[in-house]
């Protein structure tokens, strides 16, 4: 009986020791030297209010908006239109043509206003020429117009803007702030109230005849062959309403852009990624001596899709553009921006090798995020392995729209995030220990684990030998 108890006790001891070893190996060591998902902070903000009436257009530039402060890494930026009770507003009531955010430096004590913002195609132009404020631009290529860091349109609710680990978009590095300046953010919202209008899709595509405009917001004549686009639906213009649907006081509503920012505090474990926006309307053409520098590019931002001559679903407008890349780096994220009628976009190498395909998601209901006939999301690309791109390499953009009917003011923008470097090479150790083999604390932890394993093995061997002797067996070594 004692022998059985001793044997059971020995086995129990071995089991306990093995359980202890497993527990020790599954506990993450403290002080953060084992990489886990970084603690992501999140906060939601409301833009200054937009006062909208049926058929009205708001396209303000709003300065010094609420935003997380300090040296941070942006991990995502999401937005949607809400009413004064924080209820989401559907696209068939207020169409979100686009929203864009961009950081800037402003001289301390100087306050920017709407009139300080020259615009072209609804986007900022020639900013930074004054010493009072300096725009912080994305990586390129469209320096004349598309300079923002984040921006989407009707697809905003169901398009992922998540920046994958361990990457983030570095913001407000104090070493880069010019003396005497402060770091701030501006927001541009372009919203169109389509309640009671004659033609909802025509209003959202900014058809000039529905807005009854012949001059742009600066008083310049609009060319007769310009059928629709941003020149015709600028701030405070009005889309044609149905007879009897007058813009009365009760129909006035107050709306906001509600935006949610996700970020991490910046430290050495975060790998920086830059925003690059490519435009299929870019005028750049390869030429002898071309460097692909941003000064060689002019982006028209929008274009017209003309209806095909034969009816049917097979009518597709295909627009392609090949562009020289101005960086060495690794693409870690990609997503396209299209308007209604869009049927997909792609980014690929000269040999046809695909890098990213971004497809639209159309709604089929009435509720916000599922509005029938509207693009409510674009698929995003998260490559399993970052896609290496070399300086001077040519990549091709392709944007496809249905041309069964015509479309005015459509866009073909491709957003990519590019890391200039990859994280440190991971070792062949288990995932718990990957990318931390150079850490002193990790080495200490690993050494401790080796000692624990050795002790457990030694105790187990002693117990095992004792059991064998008690059972009448002798070791071969005796």
Automatic annotation (TrEMBL):
Residues 1-32 form the signal peptide. The lineage of its organism: Eukaryota, Viridiplantae, Streptophyta, Embryophyta, Tracheophyta. Keywords: Membrane, Signal, Transmembrane, Transmembrane helix. This is Stress up-regulated Nod 19 protein. The chain crosses the membrane at residues 442-464. The keyword Lipid metabolism does not apply. It comes from the Eukaryota.
